[in-house]
Amino acid sequence: MSRAMLALALALALVACNDYGTNPGGGGGGQVAAPANLAYEVEPSGTPGAPSGVLLSWEDDGNPALAVWHIYSRGSISESYLLRGSTTSTTFHDNGIPHLQYYVTAEDQAGVESGPSNVITVDERLALQKPATLTTTSLNGAIALTWSDNAFASDPSAFKVYRIYSTPYDLDNDLCLDQWALEGTTVAPEFVAAALPNGSPRCFGVSAISIEGFESLWSPIHQDTPRPDARNVVLYARQEQDDESGFRFWNDFNHDGVAQPNEIGVVGLGSSPGEDFSVERDASEALFITPVRAGTKVALYGNAPVADLTSIDAAPVNGFGRAGLEALPGWGYVFEMDGGDGFARFGALRVTHAGKNFIIVDWSFQTDPGNIELLVGRGGTH
Description:
By secondary structure, this protein is mostly beta strands. The chain has three domains: 3-126, Immunoglobulins (Immunoglobulin-like), CATH 2.60.40; 134-224, Sandwich (Immunoglobulin-like); 229-366. It has helices spanning 3-17, 150-154; strands at residues 39-43, 53-57, 66-74, 82-87, 91-95, 101-108, 120-121, 134-139, 142-147, 159-170, 175-176, 181-186, 190-193, 202-210, 222-224, 229-236, 246-250, 264-268, 277-281, 287-291, 297-301, 325-326, 332-338, 344-354, 358-366.
């Protein structure tokens, strides 16, 4: 049933079911008119079908004889309306799961109550579709999220906003912890969750909110992990300039097992056995990315150039080797490295320039031990 047809059905049902004879004192013979244009908006709680409250609002006609407004409600159409509260404001907040129906009356200075306003029915069938897909991309201290815009596209006039939630993710047990919190809201089908600690996995979910405040079911849940990166790093051929020809994704200077900012993405001596790789020039003057440190291996990412560092997905499960790979502009490379604690570490590289004497690269490194996510761009449920 379309939204318009549903609204019509609700209106016809109300005509048949409303019984204002249960309105205490609603005579309508005083100096004030019934409130006009009663409307509502429920407050999303993160749990579809269970809003945390409802906010009622109506118009004030400015009549100086007005003393107070009364709000009546009932939990089902088989119940009688009861007084829910009174206010001198044109809004009323009802905390908790809303009742099914509400109306408002006005009372004048003489204590005479008006007839009822229009009745509003809090109907969760007005909720929108859930976002059908969710995709995430790991960034430095952030996660970029995109999702299908089907909730808006299905009924643009009924759409209000998307809500984005996150919670810590237990990578070892493949479990989203029950600590969900609101990251933010947006009208666009994209969002960047920022100020996140690198190496700390999180789960994400998105819901759609209607103009009445109803929350849809959530999108598929997806997990991702922020990680450090950098752009436009120059590395020379070792035969040209040894002291800037080596690269170490993480050099634990402090020996504390924690990747400090000054320990990540360190350029050094290509001739040092402690570098993850060096840039080597062969007899034909081609430049190669060559693993150096024991326990470091490299694999070509895919079989074609990649558009950006963010195009590199999770580290592959095989294909790593110790042989050097030619540095080709636009191509991606993934490294598997011994972390010294029984867990591998993974890094990614994209070559943006390869000349005779040096290459320019973008790189990323996953600080979470054993986590293959470098720049995840996949949708999925975990």
